[in-house]
Amino acid sequence: MAHHEEHHHITLATHLQVFSALIGLTILTVVTAKFMHLGVFENLVAFSIATVKGFLVMAYFMHLKYDEKIYRWIILSSFAFVFLLFFFCVLDEATRIVQHSALQ
Amino acid sequence: MSSNSQHHHFAHHFESEEHEYATSKEGVWLFLVSEILMFGGLFVGYIIYQHMYPQVFHEGAMHLDWRLGALNTIVLLFSSLTMVLGVHFSQLGDRKKAVTALAITILCGAIFMCVKYIEYSHKIHEGLLPGAWYTGETHGLSNMGLYFSFYFMMTGLHGTHVLGGMCLILWVLLRANKGEFNSHYYTPVEGVGLFWHLVDLIWIFLFPLLYLVG
């Protein structure tokens, strides 16, 4: 049962480090959003930090870093399709609604 | 193989317990894809409407208390840690520690829902409701309800997932308590764990979207 044994090398120490990093990043995102005036970079900073946190959760807690590659491709495909939805919706809004809508 | 009476027999259509484990896990990941697509639609909708009505979203976000959001973020992150420990100890067949870790995870889910209850009751009290039910301050805007439609839909769907996750964790907790899991078989804890981490992952993005920017 070699495969099952492989999981053991994610030690509890690693999990604690990841958890500490996640808490640290949470504090950082609150400080940058609420106590610093970053203006136009506010959104970029907040979502960059969220992305790093999401990466840590997926890589370590969901052990994608150690697991078979197929799971990474499965989950990446979902992000790709959400991006596709986002891209065409923004394209539609930018080229049609903003210019022609009576709502503005 | 051991003479353990709790030994798990894999279903006959699988070649081995390894094969069963990998197939089940792939199924869970595919389910998580459908979850991300469902929440993804709401995220995209939020971004589009925020761009169309920036004032509505700005005023709406002002009604949210980031302290409660941050508290819930920390509670969920901690619950992810204890979930990882639950899987870890189930795998080692350490019944007592696995049950403790899973129980703490459920408790964290309950704390999260209590904070959500405080937030919701505060908003309902002030008439900050979705769409046509909005009776709160208008800030001179005609569609403040739009913001709270997104707020309640996104946090409500997420909260439903937390409640569902708590039930699933209770299910694996009871099975762990019976000593059903060991290094040869812990597939249900692994699958429920992945689901719980996804719920955490979605909150990681909901927190800045709703409470911090806007």
CATH class of chain B: Mainly Alpha
Class from helix and strand fractions of chain B: mainly alpha
The H/E string of chain A reads HHHH
What is the domain total for the residues of chain A? 2
Please, what is the average pLDDT of chain B? 92
Write out the CATH superfamily name of chain B: Cytochrome c oxidase, subunit III, four-helix bundle
Largest sheet of chain A: none
Q: Give the biggest beta sheet of chain B.
A: none
The CATH level-2 architecture of chain B is identified as Up-down Bundle
Instruction: Tell me the fraction of residues in β-strands of chain A, as a range.
Output: under 5%
Low-pLDDT segments, ≥5 res of chain A: 1-5
Quick summary:
The complex is a heterodimer of chains A (104) and B (214). Chain A has four helices and no strands.
Fold and architecture overview:
The complex is a heterodimer of chains A (104) and B (214). Chain A is mostly helical. Chain A is flat and about 55 Å long. Chain A starts with a helix and ends with a helix. Chain A is built from four helices and no strands. Chain B is mainly alpha-helical. Chain B has a single domain (39-212), classed as Up-down Bundle (Four Helix Bundle (Hemerythrin (Met), subunit A)), CATH 1.20.120. Residues 1-5 of chain B have low confidence and may be disordered. Chains A and B meet through α1, α2, α3 and α4 of A and α1, α3 and α6 of B.
SSE layout:
The complex is a heterodimer of chains A (104) and B (214).
Chain A: H1 2-6, H2 12-35, H3 42-61, H4 69-100
Helix pairs in contact in A: 2-3
Chain B: H1 17-52, H2 54-62, H3 66-91, H4 95-125, H5 145-177, H6 187-212
Please give a handful of descriptors for the protein shown.
heterodimer; A: 104 residues; mainly alpha; B: 214 residues; Four Helix Bundle (Hemerythrin (Met), subunit A)
